[in-house]
Amino acid sequence: MKYPLQDVSVYVAIPVNRHIPPETTMSLIETVAMFHEKNITYTVNLNAGGSIVQKSRSLIAREFLKTKHNRLMMIDSDM
């Protein structure tokens, strides 16, 4: 099944407490490369410094709602 991507705009956010593991970094790089390949607009937000994940996620959601993006992709940094 094909999904039309011409109107897709993605806000990618990673709540980060300390560091991002190499596997997560590589996944993010591959995702951004795919966005370029498919001409999908995106923004990446690394929400650093939040020790309480729920608070970081709420802040990310609030920031996403201020954008013109129509998709939110939240990635746990410890995936």
Task: Write structural notes for this entry.
- 37% of the residues lie in helices and 25% in strands.
- It contains two helices and three strands.
- It has helices at 22-37, 53-65, and strands at residues 9-16, 41-48, 71-74.
- A three-stranded parallel β-sheet has the order 2-1-3, sandwiched between helices.
The overall pLDDT average reads 88
Structural class label: alpha/beta
Instruction: Give the uncertain stretches in residue-range form.
Output: none
User: What's the alpha carbon Rg, rounded to whole Å?
Assistant: 13 Å
Order the strands across the largest sheet as they lie in space: 2-1-3
Spell out the helices and strands N to C: EHEHE
Amino- and carboxy-terminal Cα gap: 27 Å
Name the features.
alpha/beta, three-stranded parallel beta sheet, globular
Set down the secondary structure blueprint.
Elements: E1 9-16, H1 22-37, E2 41-48, H2 53-65, E3 71-74
Short précis:
With 79 residues, the protein is an alpha/beta fold. It has helices at residues 22-37, 53-65; strands at residues 9-16, 41-48, 71-74.
